[in-house]
Specification:
Serine Threonine Protein Phosphatase 5, Tetratricopeptide repeat; 33 helices; 8-stranded mixed sheet; alpha/beta; about 800 residues; 12 strands; Alkaline Phosphatase, subunit A
Amino acid sequence: MKLPTKILSLKFFLIFLAVIVAVLIGFFCVSKFFPTSEGQYLKDINKLISPYKASDLNILIITLDTTRADHLGCYGYSGVRTPNMDRLAEEGILFINATCQTPLTLPSHASIFTGTYPFFHGVKDNGFYLEDSRITLAEVVKEHGWTTSAFIGAFVLDSRWGLDQGFDYYYDNFDFTKYKTISLDSVQREGGKVTEAFFDWLEKNHQQKFLSWIHLYDPHTPYDPPEPYKTQYSNSYWTLYDGEIAYVDFLIGEILEKLKEKNILKKTLIVIVGDHGESLGQHGENSHGFFIYDVCIQVPLIIYFPSLKLEEKQVASQVETVDIMPTLLQVLNLPVPPDVQGKMLTQMIIGEKVREEYFAYSESYYPLYHYGWSELKSLRSNRYKYIKAPRPELYDIINDPNEQNNIYKQKLTIAKDFQEKLLSLEKAGSAEGIEEKRPKKLDDETQERLMALGYIGGFTSNSKLKKGYKRADPKDKIQLYNKIKIAQEKFAQKKLDESLEKINQVIKEDPEVIEALQVRSRIYLELNKYEKAIADCKSALELDPEYEAVIFNMALAYSKQKKYDEAIAGYERLMGLDPRDHKPPFNLGKIYLEIKDLDKAISFLKQAINLQPEVSTMAHLNLGKAYFEKKKLELAEQEFRKALEISPEISRAHFNLALVYEEKKEFRKAMEEYKKEIELHKEAYNAHFNLAKLYGKTGSIDLQIEHFKQSIQHKPDFANGYFFLAKTYLDSNKKLDDAINLIKKGLNLAPKSEYAPLGHYLLADIYNRLGQKDKYIEELKKGQELQKKLKKSGLR
């Protein structure tokens, strides 16, 4: 039956209405349960930074070394005053659950600035290199018109490791001549020096849009804050750590004031982030790097937008420090490199709920690389934390925030789910061959030579570093680890006997701890027990043939013994393992200078300088010596001048310049250089000695005598000083009795030296003047006989 036209019209109207309702319901569901489009994010972000455009913003990243999230006021801690960071957190965004990827400085910063995990960027420990192929945040923003700068507080982030990629100006400039012991931890600068360098740069560049990174190392050990923080936080060793954080907060306040003074704070996006935390004795660990419990991987993260619309905003979702790079690039409306693995946090920033649970990955390969124990890996959500270890761990971090109760066996299903997620993450994101870095392949002849000298025990011997080897759980080794750290601390303090006693305890308990063998070999080197040092190095190289610190110690021990062939083989091996390290060619240059193979010395010293021009003071100094030996005086002078440009207070540079001027017969200039050397280094006995001889040429006898006296005062076993001072008395017919005593002391110190005949001749002259003929003849004969012996032996 045919329906009336009105009924059909009503039917179509109802269908149309139903479609409209369905669309509206669908739109409501989508908008509620699914994230806003990227374009909408950008519109919301642009509102937040209004009236500025993204292309006008400055970006300032301040990384706080060794800073726990739970030791800042804005995270609820009352033990330290951090008003400036608290204010930034109130006026910006505070991320409650921010996790770093590694509890070590260089790997963590590599993740921050590449937005990738360590299993992709490859920097898995301090001392690794960030390859040029990895794209950094600085590279991206520089390409799009931002001026870039970085200001570094510790050698562990020196430009040599590759984090300078994309920075127009990278302030590291560490003066190694100030340090008796050079290590990744020991070479650092106080935060005020870092901010001062930033302010100097800002003065010239504040009118350009910039991305700047300031690295403040102060909370790292040793905890020694400046006043008044040292006094205010002096209750205990641990509270001094809080004093360092309080000082860092003060520096951040100064930075904010400087930005305000330049009228650019209102258009500067600021990121405050910790690179890792500090255990402070929890879980048995005093510092960081070994474990990956929350005290070491939960870090502060504050993002301050130049807007008041985000005031007191907190984000509780789990985030990671790899998320910083893609988030900033999205805010700046710049392309995110395809390799970036972090997520964009803009959805959380604008306040929209995320529909998926986020996880944070962390790792530490420190126990493996340094001790041969198992590496650690973790995956963390807002509720649970899984740690992959020989004995796996699972923690309910809401009910057990200190991670004391391992519920792995009770919650096995949850643990297995985390384990699968972690494996899937690594499998999907790992760069090819990232965990299989082994020694460079050697030809048979080289391998046989190195094995004969003890540098390698065969590449199959390092089984503890291979997959599948049952490695010790770091949890079972923490006390041993602490003993090693104490031994290293005692060594740095030059308490060698105490250091040796402690490290002997470690090796007795576990003779295959690579780092312990390395430490003991270093102690033996300091004690001049070279054979024992070499024996420990050989034992360590049986465990890991590519352990560079051990190879270096072994080559140094051979060099100290003047077994130069063996030393050369070791340094050449190191050059094969790490062609970018300047130390092996520098040491080869020193050896070849010592054995007078000057062309090779020059070649290797130039190579060292090319590898590390800003810290190559000693290389320039030795290169100058090589040129001096070859009588290339102009080139020698140039190199000594270059050494002084890098380190104006370096010892022996002015002394060597004086030698050049003496060789040129420019004695006045030589005297000025000797005086400069003495002004900088009063103990420079050779400078006093040579200056005294030049004063003798000008007839300034009193000054000549004074500087000869200074030479033996600063070096009481310097025989030549006694001989020449006595000769000066003799030449001026003064103090003959004093001259006799001086000569006898010199002969007692060096009876067979090349100047000993002079001593006997001087005595003969004095006795002749005194009319003591028998003694005159006796000393004359002694001088003649000794001179013949020395001539025969080639010493004269």
